[in-house]
Amino acid sequence: MLLYRSAVWFAKGLREYTKSGYESASKDFIPDELEVQVPGRAFMVTGGNSGIGKATAFEIAKRGGTVHLVCRDQNRAEGARGEIIRESGNQNIFLHIVDLSDPKTVWKFVENFKQEHTLNVLINNAGCMVNKRELTEDGLEKNFATNTLGVYVLTTALIPVLEKEHDPRVITVSSGGMLVQKLNTDDLQSERTAFDGTMVYAQNKRQQVVLTERWARAHPAIHFSCMHPGWVDTPGVRLSMPGFHARLGARLRSEAQGADTVLWLALAPTDAVQPSGRFFQDRKPVPTHLPFARTSSSPAEEEKLIEILEELAQRFK
Fold it and tell me: Do you know which InterPro entries this protein is assigned to (predicted)?
């Protein structure tokens, strides 16, 4: 079944996820939806020092928004912040050094953040694809700790902050790769099977889609969405998937093209980005399952994911 899913997904990707796929889809975009200025609105972008996150932060800064960059590497983050300020002319760019794979650090960060700042939009962009099983200091598998638990802790901790503001939104940068995975709550830390970083990453991205759907139902005052940026030429792809990067080469999207739907979900009029809880690709909601792929999960499986994440989140609070 995985072979079938992967074949269908790759064929779909060649049609839709490449640069030409973006160019085709963009013919239906409404340009005015991003012709906005957002002074007074605050945006948090995790992983905002490179790739899609940096492109997103820069475009928001150009439109007058206050941007909070949440990054792990201080030197690279400071360089990105300086560049965004210089090129956008916007001084309201704040930097926060946080390792999202460390839940204790995430909790502490949010406690400090909410004492000093407001927030309208959270963009969960940071992620990692570690190709050999690696544990954090807390004994958590690194991909899961960053891509799933880190996103869960940051988002749930910030929900009370977001709910106080007008038109709050949470956007999670997932991946079309999740289409090859069915939610698996029996081995969240990748302990029981041979480790495949690409498949672990895809499973994490499936988990993010499930979380988005659950959050949307539980918190109707906030607009939740997740999205697939397409196949994008980023430092992360070049580092973690060198073979894929070499194979696709010039067919990969630019970072700006990858960031387009993130920006649209963050900035477009509220009625344009409805409904909440959906998975978006190129500014439109798309299915979260391939035909005949048998990747649907039961409510009980989804509830088990929430319970495990909540237990871990509270353990490290």
Answer: NAD(P)-bd_dom_sf, SDR_fam, SDR_member_12
The structural domain count of the chain equals 1
Q: What is the pTM of this model?
A: 0.96
Q: Which domain holds residue 227?
A: 38-315
Specify which residues 232 forms β-bridges with: 253
23 lies in some domain? no
Cβ neighbors of 13 (< 8 A, separation 6 or more) are 176, 231
Query: What are the residues whose beta carbons fall under 8 Å from the beta carbon of 261, sequence distance 6 or more?
Result: 227, 228, 229, 280, 281, 282, 283
Could you tell me if residue 248 is inside a domain?
Answer: yes
**20 lies in some domain:** no
To the query of whether residue 4 is one of the catalytic residues in this protein, the response is no
Domain assignment of residue 58, yes or no: yes
Specify the CATH number for the domain of residue 143: 3.40.50.720
Coil vs helix vs strand at 171: strand
> Residue 267 burial (CB < 10 Å; 0-12/13-18/19+)?
buried
Rounded CA gap, 287 and 278, in Å? 9
Tell me which amino acid residue 44 is.
M
pLDDT in tens, 6-35: 989 889 999 999 999 999 999 999 989 999
Contact 74, 99 (CB under 8 A): no
pLDDT tens digits along 45-68: 999 999 999 999 999 999 999 999
Other CB atoms closer than 10 Å to residue 237's CB: what's the count?
18
Residue 36 identity: V
